[in-house]
Structures are given as C-alpha cells and as structure tokens.
Amino acid sequence: MSAPLQHAPRPRHRESRELETVLVTVPKRSRWRRNLAQPRSFASRIVLTLVLIVFGLLFLYPFVWLIAASLKPRGEVFDNALFPKTIVFENYVEVWNQLPLMSWLWNSVAIAVLAATAVAVSSSVVAFGFAYFKFPGRGLLFGLVLATMMLPGAVTMIPIYLIWKETGLLGTWVPLWGMNLFGSAFYIFLQRQFFLGLPRELFEAARLDGASYWGLFWRIAMPLSIPSFVIVFLFEFQASWNNLYAALIYLNAGSIDDFTAPLGIAYAMTKYSPTAGGHGDYQYVMVASLIVTLPMLILFAFGQRYFIEGVATQGRKG
Predict the structure, then answer these.
(1) Residues 37, 43, 49, 53, CA torsion sign
(2) Can you list the positions of beta strands (E) in the chain?
(3) Which residues of the chain, if any, have pLDDT below 70?
(4) Helix, strand, coil in percent for the chain, rounding step 5
(5) Helices 42-70 & 282-302, crossing angle to 10 degrees?
(6) Which sequence spans correspond to the domains of the chain?
(7) How far apart are alpha carbons 286 and 291 in whole angstroms?
(8) In angstroms, what CA-CA distances link 87 with 23, 97, 253?
C-alpha cells in the first residue's frame, strides 16, 4: 500500500518571522506602556514621592492645627503651636455643657439625609428619562437643564426665599431639603451618563416581558446604578452638611436648638467673641468644629469604594 499523503510543511523562514514578530513587538509595547505608567528611574520615583508627601502635609496641616487648638486652654488657642504647652482634655467634656452640640448634630444629620435622598432619587428619575426615552427636542431640553447650572445662586436666592415665605415654612427644615425634590442639573448629568452606559437590550427584553417604565427604572436601572447613586448621595450629603447660608437664611428666626452644626458654630463664634460680651472661650468652638468634621471623614472612609467606582464609571457614553 502506498504511504498516506502528507501535507508539505510550511516554509520555516515564514514561521521564524512570525515568531520573531511576537517575541519582539509585544515586549516593546509592554515596555512602552510601563514607561508611561511608571517613573523611568529610581530618582524620579523619589521626587514624586516627596512631592506627594509635601502636598499631603499641606492638606493635613489645618486638621492637625484644629486638633491642637481644641486641646489648648483659652489663652493659647491662637498661638499656632502644633504641640500644646498645656493639654486640656476637659474641653471635650465641657463643650456639651456650653453648647447644644448634640441637637445641632442631630439636625444636620437629619437634614443632610433628607436632602441627599431627595436629590438622588429625583435626579435619577429625570436622568433615566433623558437616557432611555427618545423624543423630539430631547437634546435641546437636556441643554436647557444644564444651562441652569450657569445661574449664580445670588440670582435665585431672593425669589426662592419669597416662595418659601408665601408657603409659611420659614424657620423649619423644609426649605433646606424641599428644593431637592426637583432634582439637580449636575446630578442629572452624572446619572444620565451612567444610564447611557447600560445595555439597552436589558430594557427591551424587560419591556417584552411586560415591565412598566417605572419597573425598568426601579428593577433594572437602579440596582445597576448603585455606585453612581451613592456618589450623588455623598456629594449632596457633604454639601448639605456644610451649607451655612441656607441655614442662616431659613433657620435664623428659630430657636438655637433648631440650628444646624455650621450655623451653631457661627453662633458660638459670636457668643464667645469679646466684642459681643464673651470671654474668648474659642477652645469650645474648636472642639465643636472638630466633632462636626469627623462625620464627613467617617462617611467618605466607608464610602470610598463606591466613590471611586462611581467616578470611574462616569462619562463612558455621551
């Protein structure tokens, strides 16, 4: 019997060229990418590390100064020393007797949670409408929404105040979070960009199964947009927590116990001022400021994973 036919081998010089291409070009690409991502020398890494340390210390200096000032007696609060000559731990005990700090903290937490929840939900609903529905003039309407961000707050301050005055809600919490029920242009933009990155086939399949439009938003879009929802919540919680001017405008007519933490600290600065008859006990103001700062640090520490993930997934589509 004749031997079975065998295929002729491919020319070895062609295989050698292909193998050489794989072995040469791929490492070059990898080295090129590594050079872009990492400093080229040990000295440059040392310089980069030193620069980061310097800027880190600059950002930490005010916080360290605040801690030192909160531990000083009355006459040493503003001596700019980072290590107190006399440490007075009693400041952290006496501040609760000097100021209604617990009421201020509770008011700030409640208002910030209401404001953040209201704006996150309302902005998500509007953003989903812009991302999912296709209708004539959608781009123009979305542009008008974004154009509202160019209006300075000073322009709308008086009209909004007159609206709340007509409703009879001045001196209550409602003006501090009620406006968030209508969404925010910036948060609508962020949420819309995230919703545009979701596969449209998911919503089309759900529609074929009989899901309503609200079901598309609540059962599909919202569970998939948790990172962006959390980032909006964190942004607004921080903004509401530090909002002094709104509390000064709408709560100034109320009692001291109804103040938020920023407004209460501003009140304490006036209370202890020697020009207002005080004795200059600013150490209690420093303690209150430090206690008010800690919730923000804790919040961003626990929400850091969602914070990074939410920022990284924005802007994937436009």
Answers:
(1) negative
(2) none
(3) 1-40, 253-254, 306-318
(4) 75, 0, 25
(5) 140
(6) 15-70, 95-312
(7) 9
(8) 66, 19, 38
Secondary structure of 16-28 in HEC code, one letter for each residue: HHHHHHHHHHHHH
Write out the two tokens for 30: 């990898």
Q: In the block, which residue shows the tokens 């080295």?
A: 31
End-to-end CA distance of the chain: 70
Please give the model's pTM, rounded to 2 decimal places.
0.79
At residue 90, the 3 state secondary structure works out as: coil
How far apart CA 124 and CA 150 sit, in angstroms, is 21
User: What is the torsion angle, in degrees rounded to the nearest 10, for the CA atoms of residue 8, residue 14, residue 15 and residue 19?
Assistant: -170
Q: Which of 80, 96, 188, 79 is nearest to 143 (CA)?
A: 188
- For 121, the enclosing helix (H) or strand (E) is helix 101-132
8 A C-beta contact, residue 105 and residue 261: yes
Q: 95-312, what's its fold?
A: MetI-like fold (1.10.3720)
pLDDT tens per residue, range 57-90: 998 999 999 999 999 998 888 888 888 888 999 9
* CB atoms inside a 10 Å sphere around CB 97: 9
* Calpha distance 125→119 (Å, rounded): 10
Taking only Cα atoms into account, the Rg of the chain, rounded to an integer number of angstroms, comes to 29
Which residue, among 303, 306, 283, has the nearest Cα to 295 in the 3D structure?
Answer: 303
